[in-house]
Every structure is written in C-alpha cells, then in structure tokens.
Amino acid sequence: MGFTGHKADSFKLEYISAFNQLEKAVKEQSKDSYMIEDPVKRAQRWIEERKAYDKAAVKADYFDKQMHNPGLLTATVIAKEYGKSAVWLNRYLEKLGVVYRQGKNWIIRQKYAGKGYMGYDNWSDESNKHVRPLLKWTQRGKKFIYDLLAQNGILPVIELMQVQQTDLLEGGY
Fold first, then answer.
1. Which of 72, 87, 167, 172 could serve as 136's disulfide partner, Cβ 3.0–4.6 Å?
2. d(CA 4, CA 25)
3. SS3 sequence, the chain?
C-alpha cells in the first residue's frame, strides 16, 4: 500500500477496517456456539452445529446397531437393506474386484481374505445330495460393503429415508 495523498489514506483506512471485520467474522464463525457473545449469532451457530451432529448421529447409530449384531449374513440379507437383490450385490462386488465366481460359488478375492469379512456355511438341496459352500458376511464384512457402496453413492434405504426426512425438515416443508 504505497499510495499517498488524502484519497489513499481514506482507502487504507477502509481497507484496514474491512480486513478487521472479515477477521472478526472468521474468528466468530470458527468458535463453538457457546463462545459467541451475540445471542442471535450464537443461536444460529448452535443450529448449524446441531444439524451437523444429527447427520453424523444417523451414521453412528447405524454403525453401532450393525456392529453389535452377531452371526453371518447372506448377500440377500445385506442387499435387501439397499432395496436390491443378492444377484445385484454379488455382481457389483465382482465389478469392484472383491469377489469372483467359481462355478456356483462366490469366492472372496485373496486381497480381502483373512480380514474377518466373511465365512462359509454349507448349502445343500433338500436331499442333501448337493452340498456346496455358501459365502456369508460377518458384521465387519457388512461394514466393509457399506463403506464400498457409500463411496459409490449407494446407501441403505433406511438411511436414504432419514437423509430425505432431514432435508425436508431443513427446507421447512
């Protein structure tokens, strides 16, 4: 700011004032709501914090419920949470390089074996003449699938409904 003269001094003062206001606004916005002195701004910030918390809580609740559910799950059970079929899920996981098909069996790729994502149960026809291994998923595996699908924008139906409901409430409808 190497300007000189009356107009330059006025400009410098306005610039400094604007900078200070911007700095104050940035500091106010980065504070937690309880640190803001202005009651209206404090309430607005609290609402923003609460919305962020509510969105995170939906995911945390889902994760907590799922991780405490013991047992192995079929692809059908997992797929139904997304409104899809086991065929769709297995093919999608195959496309992502997680599983491959060997005859009538789905097999997890070596890269993911030994991570606690899956187990095998025996499947048999009614006469027990035809027995084969059936890939099933642990809770850890279900979480792994959830993360993979979420990275690709695919969420369980229940979560989509909760997000839509939150969006409706935020929109004031």
1. 72
2. 29
3. CCCCCHHHHHHHHHHHHHHHHHHHHHHHHHCCHHHCCCHHHHHHHHHHHHHHHHHHHHHHHHHHHHHCCCCCECHHHHHHCCCCCHHHHHHHHHHCCCEEEECCEEEECHHHCCCCCEEEEEEECCCCCCEEEEEEECHHHHHHHHHHHHHCCCCCHHHHHHHHHHHHHHCCC
- Give me 87's structure tokens: 């065929």
> What digits encode the pLDDT tens for the residues 63-75?
565 555 567 899 9
CB 165 within 8 A of CB 137: no
Distance separating alpha carbons of residues 90 and 111, to the nearest angstrom: 17
108 neighbors 99 (Cβ within 8 angstroms): yes
Closest CA to 134 of 106, 112, 100: 106
Spatial distance between the Cα atoms of 108 and 78, rounded to a whole number of angstroms? 16
β-pair partners for 73 = 137
* Model pTM score: 0.55
pLDDT in tens, 46-69: 888 888 777 777 767 665 655 555
